[in-house]
Amino acid sequence: MATTFTKSMARNIFYGGAVFFFLLFLALTMDTTYNRLPQRDNRQAITEQVALGKRVWEENDCIGCHTLLGEGAYFAPELGNVYKRRGPDFIKAWIKAQPSGVPGRRQMPQFNLSEEELDALVAFFKYVSEIDTNAWPPNIEG
């Protein structure tokens, strides 16, 4: 066994380590993509109505004020679990009643959504609430 650490040994350790960690990265990516995500992302619940609800969400820039699964602005509440927290009737009534006019409170604009758009938005919130988020948000109020 050599008693000195040569450039050749250092190069071999570097290349061997780089290949090992690259293969480890590929294996973990493949495992996540093909084994773990299909069990957690609730893709089986995506319907045309859910897709319409997502379009309503995006076209009205809801994420400009709200967060959804931790993404978005923090001006208004997290809506990742709003379906479980409030239910479909409350969500629709809340959106229809905006702006609330309560002094001292932030006001959500009135978007004049149709019943079809409201139902789709509720379906989108239901879909999102059933994604396995590993217990995110940490409490029911977001």
From TrEMBL:
<keyword id="KW-0472">Membrane</keyword>
<feature type="domain" description="Cytochrome c">
    <location>
        <begin position="48"/>
        <end position="129"/>
    </location>
</feature>
<dbReference type="GO" id="GO:0046872">
    <property type="term" value="F:metal ion binding"/>
</dbReference>
<feature type="transmembrane region" description="Helical">
    <location>
        <begin position="12"/>
        <end position="30"/>
    </location>
</feature>
<dbReference type="InterPro" id="IPR009056">
    <property type="entry name" value="Cyt_c-like_dom"/>
</dbReference>
<keyword id="KW-0812">Transmembrane</keyword>
<dbReference type="InterPro" id="IPR036909">
    <property type="entry name" value="Cyt_c-like_dom_sf"/>
</dbReference>
<keyword id="KW-0349">Heme</keyword>
<dbReference type="GO" id="GO:0009055">
    <property type="term" value="F:electron transfer activity"/>
</dbReference>
<keyword id="KW-1133">Transmembrane helix</keyword>
<dbReference type="Pfam" id="PF00034">
    <property type="entry name" value="Cytochrom_C"/>
</dbReference>
<protein>
    <submittedName>
        <fullName>Nitric oxide reductase subunit C</fullName>
    </submittedName>
</protein>
<dbReference type="GO" id="GO:0020037">
    <property type="term" value="F:heme binding"/>
</dbReference>
<keyword id="KW-0479">Metal-binding</keyword>
<keyword id="KW-0408">Iron</keyword>
